[in-house]
Design a protein that fits this description.
- The protein has two helices and no strands.
- It is mostly helical and 72 residues long.
- The model has no long low-confidence stretch (mean pLDDT 91).
- Helix 1 runs antiparallel to helix 2.
- Helix content is 79%, strand content 0%.
- It has one domain.
Length: 72
């Protein structure tokens, strides 16, 4: 697993790792401490994915806004 000090993962990398975290949590068999660490990592990865999606939406909105202004 990557650490917070590592470079920010791409959306695809973060999403894939998040899928693995969820699988691990659903499978069970981990200690409470391990489960908490997985949960915290999952929360961080979910935040990273949301930031990527928000950035993509902002870029799309900017392009659509520019196209709308060109039509006026």
């Amino acid at each position: 697993m990557a650490t917070e000090s590592d470079e920010r993962p791409s959306y695809e990398e973060a999403r894939e790792e998040l899928v693995e975290v969820v699988r691990s949590l659903e499978a069970g068999g981990t200690t409470l401490e391990e489960s908490l660490k997985l949960w915290e990592r999952g929360e961080l990865l979910a935040t990273i994915c949301q930031e990527w999606l928000d950035g993509a939406r902002a870029r799309l909105d900017a392009v659509v806004g520019d196209a709308d202004e060109d039509e006026d």
